[in-house]
Amino acid sequence: MKIRLTVNSQVYERDVAENRTLLRFIREDVGLTGTKEGCGAGECGACTVYMNGKTVNSCMVLAVEADGAAIETIEGEAVDGMLSKLQEAFDRNHAVQCGFCTPGMLISAKELIHNHPKPTVEQIKEGLEGNLCRCTGYQQIIEAVLDTTGQLTRKEGLEYAGK
Amino acid sequence: MLHQFSYVAPKSREELLDLLSTDYAHAKILAGGTDLLVNIRNGTVKPGMVIDIKKIKEFSGITYSKGEGLVLRPAVTINDVLRDPTVRDYFPLLQECGHDLASYQIRNRATVIGNVVNASPCSDMAPALLCLDSQVVLASSRGTRTVPLKEFFIGVKKTVLAPDEIVERIIVPTQAKGAIGKYRKLKRINGHDLGIIGVAVAVVNGHVRIAVSSAAPTPVVTEGLPMDIQVDEAVEITMNMISPISDVRCTKEYREFMVNTFVRRLLAEVRG
User: Fold this and answer.
1) Domain for residue B1, yes or no?
2) Are B204 and B179 in contact (CB under 8 A)?
3) Any A CB within 8 A of B216 CB
4) How confident is the model over A63-104, as pLDDT tens digits?
5) Per the confidence metrics, is the pTM higher than 0.90?
6) Are both B130 and B104 inside the same structural domain?
């Protein structure tokens, strides 16, 4: 079936199989491999992207369902090679280790901050509950979100040492 | 996904019902897709045709009027319910249950009606909807009929829905003093997890109602019990309506123990 949609504001028109997921479409047809496939069943959130302004697990969306949709992926986050505030905060707070969960984590965090400009730790935990991380233990990720929203008071990270 | 199917997205209710009247045998309805697409991927469901109902305009939106009550349509997602100011003001129990369903991204896609039609014993929306005496409106090209939600479930993943029928609306009647209640779901972790058991206790029209999920082939609910019922009696009535099993998540005995505990705690909370 023919579909037409935008990914990071760029228009794509493609013929896709009905059983192709949005995730496969983004990775293999569009060629943006920042979005990851973890579990393929909506448990891990590594495939999280924005679809019409809402976060979705792209492994559980058919590409044909996204006909006419506006998709945003992690590749749209940095502008002209400059990391976004959120990306910088993840970097500064060591919220990235292996990096596999990070693209999905950032998209979910972006939606969370959009909904709650000054989130509590509880709200952060709820907003990110659909994204699993096996490396960092989440604390650094929570701190990175708090840092982005100007709420991090305890600055103990290595990058902060001596500043 | 290896399994192949055709995809149609009807634009109107009539087109959908027409399609179902002839092609129901191999068709599956796609709303949020959070169960269907996982099942297709696992190979447990192999539809020849997937019918996306989200392009049907009259299938979205939550409406409320005192006379009719709260009307939830097929494309209404869990997060739609959580964001809706009317639900927040008049049906807070629905939001309590919604919060416990899966994860944020899934709540952006998963629909209330999808959760009900799935008829999973561990449905998160069913306990609240059962306590609140919800009605289910079924439609096919043969006409429409209304069934109480309590009679809609008939077994594990089984409902009274005929193959050519869809659930067109769920109607939650207006409660004089608002749908006040509490829901507690026992999970292994605080975040995204299926329930080990779930208990909802609500005050509805001067009576207490108790609903339980994950402890019988279907979610179950008591009749309206007197407000001043003895705790032990309420527990006994609840225990008589459930029939838990031991499975991968826990034993039958643990389920019984925790239903008992949650009923006691929630009753105390709801009655203040």
Assistant:
1) no
2) yes
3) no
4) 999 999 999 999 999 999 999 999 999 999 999 999 999 999
5) yes
6) yes
